[in-house]
Design brief:
Length: about 450
């Protein structure tokens, strides 16, 4: 009887279901497959999925969507968070040249990315110098000169008989003397990770003390991205990455692997062979691309917005009609408890922007008591709070039924009346203070 009426009280509230161990399995499979298809490395996928699973259990799901769809949204948000939420810009020095060292395997797109970056920085007003420190491939120095001409950026080179670290050191001296703002050092890659390449990178690094060491990774390289990143990061230490060739059909899972393995942000993406084809990295766009479930994400977002809007509109109407009852009270407390929906509510109700997290915590403790008491009310009592105000015997019964003292029930009733008054004031645009401090 008691639990049935509680069911009733809860019906129509926002949290219709939560993500649980049982309903999440199907979604986990979908997400795992999507990540692997996007070429996120297997070990990264495993770790990531377990983390998200733990985080997602217990998450409330709004009407109109399924727990597994909601789970995919949680995964998406976690992906975005993991990749840094916002774009991380390049480090820039004031007064002395910013030194950027390009690292990566042969063919990854280092030389192209050097020119792209040079053009990007030039367009921001910087005086840029590119440095040809790849002395192994015969055409490498020429390639950089050609690109330099194309974008009208000076290229510094010596000859293939001078060691890369000496070339790099000389370029820094020139850069300082001639007032360059940025020096981009293009280095040699190998087809695979090898000791000689790593040692050379370390020597160049000590010769120039770069501000940025950007690992250039071909997004088509797939699963290997994690291992390449690990090696470069352990042996040289990277400050960021550029993910290239995203104009192809790579889903971009390398972005997740790079970030997860090194902790370094992806700063740019390459989207074509042309020197203009460089874009700042945006975690949200990449997360959508990696998941490849844009339709699900849109659906969840839409359902959530609809529920929030419906809740707020319904509440405002009730307040205007002064029919705010105990069920609404419970719903309000729940709304306040979940910050996400509070955000939506705050936008619509003037003066609601003074609620902080301590108040939310206080509200949570109260919510438990209130839920129990409202659960012990009859439907008439819930709809008609005046019945309780006028009949102490009803309050006694509710106290017994919910395991509280009559005093506590009386206090809850006072809280309710304050909340109702507060809500009514709010819709008129007056701020009476903190709605959750009542009864304390
Ligand atoms: P490096 O050996 O690391 O210096 O690589 P390169 O800069 O010489 O690039 C290798 C090849 O990849 C060249 O043919 C480039 O045109 C091509 N490339 C580089 N970046 C991109 C990109 O973002 N998109 C596409 N489609 N091709 C790229
Ligand atoms: Mg090159």
């Amino acid at each position: 009887q008691l639990s049935a009426s509680f069911e009733d009280a809860v019906k129509g509230l926002r949290g219709q279901a939560t993500i649980s161990d049982t309903n999440v399995d199907n979604a986990l499979r979908q997400v795992r497959r999507a990540l692997l298809e996007a070429d996120v490395s297997l070990s990264v996928v495993k770790k990531f999925i377990e983390e998200v699973r733990r985080k997602a259990i217990g998450t409330e799901v709004v009407r109109g969507i399924k727990p597994d769809q909601k789970f995919i949204q949680v995964v998406y948000e976690q992906l975005v968070k993991l990749m840094g939420t916002e774009n991380t810009p390049l480090i820039r020095n004031n007064g002395k040249p910013t030194v950027i060292l390009m690292a990566g395997l042969q063919g990854a797109g280092k030389t192209t990315a050097s020119a792209k970056l040079a053009l990007y920085l030039k367009s921001q007003g910087a005086k840029v110098l590119m440095v040809a420190a790849d002395i192994y491939r015969p055409a490498a120095i020429d390639q950089l000169h050609v690109l330099g001409k194309q974008i009208d950026v000076e290229v510094f080179s010596i000859s293939k008989d001078v060691q890369p670290e000496e070339i790099a050191a000389a370029s820094i001296q020139k850069g300082c003397e001639e007032g360059f703002d940025c020096i981009i050092i293009d280095t040699a890659g190998r087809l695979q990770i090898d000791t000689a390449m790593m040692e050379e990178m370390v020597r160049i690094k000590s010769a120039v003390s770069p501000d940025e060491i950007l690992l250039v990774v071909d997004s088509m390289i797939g699963q290997e991205a994690a291992e390449i990143t690990r090696t470069f990061h352990e042996q040289v230490g990277i400050t960021g990455a550029i993910l290239t060739k995203l104009d192809g059909d790579a889903r971009g899972g390398a972005a997740l692997s790079i970030r997860k393995v090194s902790g370094a942000p992806i700063k740019f993406i390459g989207v074509g062979e042309k020197v203009e084809a460089l874009q700042p990295f945006h975690p949200e766009r990449m997360a959508s691309r990696i998941l490849g479930m844009g339709d699900v994400l849109t659906l969840v977002e839409k359902a959530q917005k609809e529920v929030e809007l419906a809740d707020v509109e319904q509440m405002q109407k009730k307040l205007q009609e002064a029919s705010f009852d105990f069920s609404d009270f419970l719903q309000q407390m729940r709304l306040i408890k979940s910050m996400g929906s509070l955000g939506g509510l705050m936008k619509m109700i003037p003066g609601m922007n003074k609620i902080d997290s301590t108040m939310i915590k206080q509200g949570e403790a109260q919510l438990k008591r209130i839920e129990a008491m409202i659960g012990s009310m009859t439907p008439q009592e819930r709809q008609n709070p005046e019945l309780l105000a006028s009949q102490p015997r009803r309050r006694g019964r509710i106290a017994q039924g919910s395991g509280h003292t009559q005093n506590e029930v009386d206090k809850m009733l006072v809280d309710f009346q304050k909340m109702r008054g507060f809500m009514q004031q709010m819709t008129r645009g007056n701020n009476l203070g903190n709605p959750l401090s009542m009864g304390n």
